[in-house]
Amino acid sequence: MSGSGLDEAAVEAARLLLSRMGISPHDLVASAPVRPLAPTFAEYVPVVLAAATPGSKKAYGTYWNRAVERWGTRRLDEVTPSDIEHFIVAIKANAVQRRNGRGGRSAAEHVVAALRCLYRRAVADGLIAESDNPAAKVAKPRRLSSTRRAVPDARLAEINDVVATTGDDPALDSLLIRLHTETACRRGGALALRPIDLDQDQCLVLLHEKGGSVRWQPVSPTLMGYLHQHAAERGAPPAGQLLRYRGGQPITYRRYDHLWVRVGQQLPWAASQQISTHWLRHTTLTWVERNFGYAVARAYAGHAEGGGSDVGATAGYVKASLQEIAEALATLTGELHPLCPARE
């Protein structure tokens, strides 16, 4: 072994093989494909934004734009892992400080995820080699356990009371709370709901959620009636967004923000703990798991099979049926469901 760390025997064998093939090392270098110069961040980020899904734009768009501000004239292959780590430090230092913040860890995690997404696209486009991807060489901060948990029954009743008796549209807000409590859906699933997604005969709603997932979720006959009534009264077109303001305009994420600000003003404990819509998901799924087991709770949540949250290989075998989900819902709401067998 020489001082350079090369295996001289292996090098000599390679030279001998090339000599017998009539190829010189110079020929190899001369015939190597020439990769075009990588674009600058200012040139490439608009390309990535144009091809990104709405979810990716919402999650990563801010960080892609910040990368343009920082490295706009630099080519993609000129940024090093150290540059990215310095960028993370700057993002963490300027992160908005909230009461439930964790020192900018979430911002740092999103920076790494955003740059990995951008560089994966650059590799797929043939602009850089996989081995030259600097974002893949930067460790992603470990995600801490969530502070969210199930809301106790008495506290949930307080939330429902505030929602139903305050604000400029209690009917809309009460419908939102009931929809999320019964289905444990995410905000995106509720906002994507359309009148054509309602199966009134079987009391099912078709939820379109993150990652392009689609699933049928049972709802109570009472909630199904409210959803149909809401769509009819507020002029929701069959293939348009179902949830709307009184004037007919579709609601946005902003409605949720205003709702929880109002709840926090009336219930100081809700403001202190930063209660949000996702807490309702925790509440329902915790109740389902305690009363109907892990398999039903997993199906109720709409978690993809084979996901990283699975508890062992057994999770791939113990799949809950739609009827079992409907049974859990019927017990939760105290209403019979069309998919459940007749009960006393």
TrEMBL record:
InterPro entries: DNA_brk_join_enz, Integrase-like_cat_sf, Integrase_catalytic, Integrase_recombinase_N, Tyrosine_recombinase_XerCD
Listed Gene3D superfamilies: 1.10.150.130, Intergrase catalytic core
Family: Belongs to the 'phage' integrase family.
Pfam annotation, one family: Phage_integrase
Stated name of the protein: Tyr recombinase domain-containing protein
Domain Tyr recombinase residues, every copy: 146-330
Gene Ontology molecular functions: DNA binding
Keywords noted in UniProt: DNA recombination, DNA-binding
Source organism (scientific name): Actinoplanes auranticolor
Higher taxonomy: Bacteria, Bacillati, Actinomycetota, Actinomycetes, Micromonosporales
Any single biological process term in GO: DNA integration
Source species, domain of life: Bacteria
Transmembrane segments: none
